[in-house]
């Protein structure tokens, strides 16, 4: 009886624990699927040597495919020479077939003439870069301009290469200006020049004001006027008025005072 009771108890315990075992098994299976998905997504961004050969062609954009470019955390589109810069390329596929992103590449040009190439940037290839129909996806592109590039404004031309039904296409996702700044410099050459010019103008203005003040002070410090006494004039007047009624009245008044 005791053995039979123990068997019944163990059987009931297994029935109670069965749902929990299935849940645990399901969770472990989901973890395996997630890890496999992460491994597949980590294949994106592998650079291949054959990308340059693919990028030498000149293909047209596919109909129904739109692109957009965003500089994350860098709205000023400032690029430090010699350091990596990241941008995000968004693709929207409104076509009937899925597309496969092959690579992204870019180049730097002078702003006034795109025929004057400054630098070809590193191409970046993608594995498993598939965008289904009526879907959109974002791909990162990391590049670095030469550390010897002079600071200033340049034009960046970015192109994404993709295939639809084994037919190659390309779309320009960015064609605009970027500001290249010197690495580790708080001020650019133009800023230093403007600050120096402003200081020089302030010094010249101060010297001019100082000169004007000195000139005005010299005018105020003129030699004092020597007042001429009235004795000489009185003597000449007496000689001229001698024998007149005026001298006679003066003599009479002097006698009266005595």
From TrEMBL:
This is Translocon-associated protein subunit alpha. It is a single-pass type I membrane protein. Residues 1-26 form the signal peptide. It comes from Prunus avium (Cherry). The chain crosses the membrane at residues 185-209. It is found in: Endoplasmic reticulum membrane. Keywords: Calcium, Endoplasmic reticulum, Membrane, Signal, Transmembrane, Transmembrane helix. Shows a remarkable charge distribution with the N-terminus being highly negatively charged, and the cytoplasmic C-terminus positively charged. TRAP proteins are part of a complex whose function is to bind calcium to the ER membrane and thereby regulate the retention of ER resident proteins. May be involved in the recycling of the translocation apparatus after completion of the translocation process or may function as a membrane-bound chaperone facilitating folding of translocated proteins. Heterotetramer of TRAP-alpha, TRAP-beta, TRAP-delta and TRAP-gamma. The gene is LOC110761733. InterPro entries: TRAP_alpha (IPR005595). Belongs to the TRAP-alpha family. One of its GO terms (cellular component) is endoplasmic reticulum membrane. Its main location: endoplasmic reticulum.
């Amino acid at each position: 009886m005791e053995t039979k009771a123990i068997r019944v108890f163990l059987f009931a315990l297994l029935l109670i624990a069965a749902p929990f075992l299935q849940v645990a098994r399901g969770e472990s299976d989901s973890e395996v699927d997630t890890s496999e998905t992460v491994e597949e997504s980590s294949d994106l961004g592998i650079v291949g040597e054959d990308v340059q050969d693919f990028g030498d062609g000149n293909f047209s954009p596919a109909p129904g495919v739109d692109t957009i470019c965003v500089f994350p955390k860098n709205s000023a589109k400032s690029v430090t020479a010699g350091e990596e810069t990241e941008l995000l390329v968004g693709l929207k596929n409104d076509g009937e077939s899925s597309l496969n992103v092959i690579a992204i590449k870019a180049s730097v040009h002078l702003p006034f003439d795109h025929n004057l190439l400054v630098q070809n940037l590193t191409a970046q290839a993608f594995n498993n870069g598939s965008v289904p129909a009526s879907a959109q996806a974002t791909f990162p592109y990391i590049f670095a301009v030469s550390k010897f590039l002079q600071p200033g404004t340049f034009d960046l031309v970015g192109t994404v290469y993709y295939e639809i039904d084994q037919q190659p296409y390309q779309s320009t996702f960015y064609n605009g200006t970027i500001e290249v700044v010197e690495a580790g410099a708080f001020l650019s050459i133009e800023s230093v020049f403007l600050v120096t010019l402003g200081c020089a103008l302030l010094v010249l203005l101060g010297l001019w004001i100082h000169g004007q003040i000195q000139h005005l002070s010299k005018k105020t410090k003129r030699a004092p006027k020597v007042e001429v006494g009235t004795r000489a004039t009185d003597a000449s007047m007496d000689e001229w008025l001698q024998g007149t009624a005026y001298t006679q009245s003066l003599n009479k008044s002097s006698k009266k005072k005595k």
